[in-house]
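Review session, final week

We close the course with one last complete record, chosen because it touches almost every idea we covered. It is Uridylate kinase, a protein from Candidatus Segetimicrobium genomatis with 255 residues. Go through it on your own first, then we will talk.
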Amino acid sequence: MTARVARPAYRRVLLKLSGEALAGPGGTGVDPQVLHLVAREVKSVRDDGVDVAIVVGGGNIVRGVQFAERTGLNRATADYMGLLATVINALALQDAMEREGLETRVQTAVEMRQVAEPYIRRRAVRHLEKGRVVIFAGGTGSPYFTTDTAAALRAIEIEASAILMAKKGVDGVYDKDPRGSTDAVRFDTLDYMEMLNRGLKVMDATATSLCMDNDMPIVVFDITHPGNLRRAVRGEDIGTLVGGSAGGPGRDQRR
C-alpha cells in the first residue's frame, strides 16, 4: 500500500527572515551555514509546488533605530542605511539558493538596477507563477517602517496564504522571553488583539494591524531545525499560529 504524502496547506507563502536569523556568532555578519540551511529549506518547499517569497531584514548589519540612538545620526538616515543592509542579506541569500538549484529574483523597494530589479507587484507575482523564489529587499522603501511591516505589506500584495515568521532558536510565541525565563509558556494559537494587548513582540503594531485588517495568518516557528519550514507549510502543529479565520486567505487558499 502506497504511503500517503502530506500536501501543502498553503499555496503561496511569504517567509520573513530577520537579519538576526542570518547572523553569525555575536549576532552580526552573515553565517554561511544558516544561509545554506535556509536555502535547503526553501528548496524542499518549492519541490512541493509551493510559491515562496521572502522578506529579509538587516539587523545583523545595521538596525536603524538603535544605530541612530547610539551615534546621534538622523533617524531617517540610519533607517536608510538599514534598508541598504537588507539588500546585502538578500544578495547573500540569493547566491545560497541558486547554489541549491533554485531560480531566484531579488526585488528592492529602493531602486538599484545594477544588483536587483525594482519592486513591481505584477512582476513579482509573475515570477512566483513561474516557480521563481522572489526575495524582497529594501523594506517598504521608506524610513520609520520596519521590515515586519514590509513583510505584512508584501504578503497582502502578492496574495500570500500566510506569513511564516522564522526565528532562530525560538520555537514560537511565549508569554515572556524563553531564553531568560525557565517558566515561559508557549502559545499554540493567538488572535491579533491578544498579541497587541499583551505586548508580545512577534511583529510591530503597524504590521500586526495590517495582518489583522486583511486576515493574514502568521506562523511563528524555529527555522534552525531542518524540515521545520516544510512542516509549517504543511500546516502541522509547529510553533504558534496567529490569526487567520475561516474566511481569510490562510483558509480559502488551502488545498
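Two points worth writing down before the exam:
The chain has one domain: 12-252.
Confidence is low (pLDDT under 50) at residues 246-255.
Good luck, everyone.
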